[in-house]
């Protein structure tokens, strides 16, 4: 027989005992058992971001706990739920750096504690966006629509995954290359 208890607070100590009951009354209590739930990571924060790296930090865990392997996921629909980096155990470090991230992409970083018996606590998470870089894609559908006294220059934005940030403006260059001769 068993009973599952939900919604226990993290980092709290609970005392448990059990007694059997029948139609004649209640028997003796079993020896009391105490259990402390695993605490949460405290003060999880992003400390540094570049176009290809996210650095997260947190407060040092209590002595009897270690930090389980932190990982990061991209939050866009094409790769949601796919871990980007899942390093080995980091013990009691107070930071982790996720490298090889894509530029201008949002990531959710997860960190949790583990006790000396390797029981895992709940993940804490934080969201960060890597910085952008210059676009790696060229404008698409570039063309000129002529008229008698003017021309219209048209184009489309580069592919979304090659923008590496928000396109804020475009530079158009032109020069006179000579007269038409017959």
Helix-strand blueprint:
Elements: E1 13-16, E2 21-22, E3 25-26, E4 33-36, E5 45-49, E6 54-57, E7 65-67, E8 71-74, E9 83-85, E10 95-98, E11 106-111, E12 113-115, E13 124-129, E14 140-146, E15 151-156
Antiparallel strand pairs: 1-4, 2-3, 5-6, 6-10, 7-12, 8-9, 8-11, 11-13, 14-15
Structure description:
The chain has no helices and 15 strands. It has strands at 13-16, 21-22, 25-26, 33-36, 45-49, 54-57, 65-67, 71-74, 83-85, 95-98, 106-111, 113-115, 124-129, 140-146, 151-156. With 182 residues, the protein is mainly β. Residues 78-82 have low confidence and may be disordered. The protein starts with 12 loop residues before the first strand and ends in a 26-residue tail after the last strand. Helices cover 0% and strands 35% of the residues. Strand 2 and strand 3 form a beta hairpin.
| Number of beta-strand segments | 15
Q: Which ranges are low-confidence, i.e. pLDDT below 50, for 5 or more consecutive residues?
A: 78-82
Shape descriptor: elongated
Helix fraction, binned, reads: under 10%
SSE class:
mainly beta
Give the terminus-to-terminus CA distance: 100 Å
Question: Kindly state the mean pLDDT as a whole number?
Answer: 86
* β-strand amount: 25-35%
Gist of the model:
Helices cover 0% and strands 35% of the residues.
Quick tags:
182 residues; mainly beta; 4-stranded antiparallel beta sheet; 0% helix
